[in-house]
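new request in #modeling-help
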Amino acid sequence: MPVKDCKTEQLIKETAKRIFLTEGNMFATTQDIADAAGVNRTLLHYYFRSRDVLFNMVFKEALTELRERLHEVLGSQLAFKQKIDNLVSVFYDELIKFPYLETFIALQLNQEPAKYEELFTGLPGGKERLKNFLKEIQREMDNGHIAEMKPINFFINLFALMAYPFVARPIYLKMFDLTDAAYNKLLTERKKSIVSMLFKN
Amino acid sequence: MPVKDCKTEQLIKETAKRIFLTEGNMFATTQDIADAAGVNRTLLHYYFRSRDVLFNMVFKEALTELRERLHEVLGSQLAFKQKIDNLVSVFYDELIKFPYLETFIALQLNQEPAKYEELFTGLPGGKERLKNFLKEIQREMDNGHIAEMKPINFFINLFALMAYPFVARPIYLKMFDLTDAAYNKLLTERKKSIVSMLFKN
Amino acid sequence: MPVKDCKTEQLIKETAKRIFLTEGNMFATTQDIADAAGVNRTLLHYYFRSRDVLFNMVFKEALTELRERLHEVLGSQLAFKQKIDNLVSVFYDELIKFPYLETFIALQLNQEPAKYEELFTGLPGGKERLKNFLKEIQREMDNGHIAEMKPINFFINLFALMAYPFVARPIYLKMFDLTDAAYNKLLTERKKSIVSMLFKN
Amino acid sequence: MPVKDCKTEQLIKETAKRIFLTEGNMFATTQDIADAAGVNRTLLHYYFRSRDVLFNMVFKEALTELRERLHEVLGSQLAFKQKIDNLVSVFYDELIKFPYLETFIALQLNQEPAKYEELFTGLPGGKERLKNFLKEIQREMDNGHIAEMKPINFFINLFALMAYPFVARPIYLKMFDLTDAAYNKLLTERKKSIVSMLFKN
DNA sequence: AATGAATGAGGCTTCATTCAT
DNA sequence: TATGAATGAAGCCTCATTCAT
């Protein structure tokens, strides 16, 4: 019985996103996804042709969404500190949705570099905006607002502090015997402290 | 690669470690591993019974090694700052060998929690030592050496700053058009700055 | 291609005939046929219930048409040689339309004999007319117009000389580096020589 | 239980040859072939990697064998008539083994021309030998031994008379209500008459 | 009459694993 | 210890077909 009108395609895609990027289940089969979405497995091929296509589409969309939201912040006219603050907020939103996005990209890039070429070259004006942001970082160092280091390292620190706790969540849950709720509380507290970590005093 | 020669069993295990934990190829088949080791695929089962056993053994060994080295540092009588310094050095050594160790654990924990139970419970006196370290962190905060935050967050920050750049290496290579050598240089520079990030002025 | 316009049913059937019997594409899917006809795949089932029904209908129609035209010639009051001459002409006409008709029947008969039963039993007066023709052949041999052999062999020779060059066309195109046009010219020339092959001097 | 020592590969190939080329079952699945050979389906992939590879290997081998045997005759120093006589014998031997060889090639050439390229270009000195044979035919015409026509048409006639009755066997069995034995007898008689068909008186 | 969505059957292939030597 | 052969499970995908509109 067709239940979802014309939204089955969306349903499958969203389910795949959840399984791949939220739950981090790289090995999910087409059957797993179909079951989770409550649809016939064949429909997955009907709409997306192959698991591979779906897999990549899901990545591409999530990455594009993340990139666009981040670039919006980077391109804004806010003061640097405020910009970072917004960046953290935006990144948190996305990481809650897709904590495994970066991990997967990293894993896949090692294995099939060619396939992910476009994900990095395809952004119009992306490299430029990135360069501008690095310059902005340099300026802040020159002004003494942030510690001296290579701007790229500041950039990496920023994303490390934001992304890593999401990726490593299951480990720390075990390691410190935390509930999901408790860990979420921790993450919220971190949100504020990340900025203070990055800026002097 | 220096491999304990003459022992096929060792050879297979080391090869599997390299493929899984260094190259991050989660999908490597027994054939892939056997080929990379230059041995017959069947030998893998002869020595390790199944892919799964090998897979877990590799994790367990790598994690145990890492844990022991870290605990050695944590349990030492050094001053806190010096301890952190040593920790970074030790962790860097391990991450160079197995950059994907944590990532894989995180990925696997979501999918087969039961299987990784022992990796966290099996450490004698582990939890205790961890608690002591968290207390030590708290003390440093009380002394005003490091910024106020939950000790766990300091702990997570520490590992985020160390681990993330290794895992995300392929992404940043692409994003900033860096060579492997240039990225390695960056990582070395980070090593020093991590400590200064964590401590006040 | 002249197709009975406005009737989708006709269009599908004609397209199927072309694909199966003219182009010899046994493996054509319902999608292939629908695409070639420019209609929705489902219509194929709407009109013909199943691929199988369409497949057989196409055969039956083509075979019936061929049979009727041949029987008309066989049953005519012409002199034997003239009859053969007409037969060749008629058969050529049909082979140009459906070069793979006989090949397919032969292939299918091995695989699903039951299904093609009716194609051979369903011709009213067919066996009789065939027998009469064989007798006519015998008479011609007795009169010394054609070489002595079993009448059936004469019959088979006749059809071999006519049909084989159509079926094997792709092979000879390759083998002798011929264009389609050149091969067609060859076939036209053969038309005349077939009769002279079959009759004495 | 492994029954056939190291000959399983051969067994599978021979079975596939029989099914494809002797029985003319183009649609045979890997399961059909494995069942007929009495082996596990997976072995087919173990030895041949894919159905496609097996399919093509079978064709290539059969065609190569046929070609080599025919070329041997064509290149012999026998008198023309004797040569044709031998050719018929050799071709009969092969057609009894693989009656559908030519039919399949013809069918496949329409659908995947590229794949069969090598089957025609790969024969060393093939084209030349063919040309020489055509010249030989021309000479025989000039000498008045055979009827005047394009040499290629003589060539095609020869193969039509030989090959067609094998391909169309199932049709004529039905059409003339013949047993297999009776049809075989017919074919044997044809063997002699083919030569007399091709030569003047 | 026509169409997009949905489904079940079945094919090909890969993989981990076991057997026999 | 080592290896080629064999096997079962399971995955992906395509296809014919049906449903609902």
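bot summary: The CA atoms of residues 92 and 188 of chain C lie 9 Å apart.
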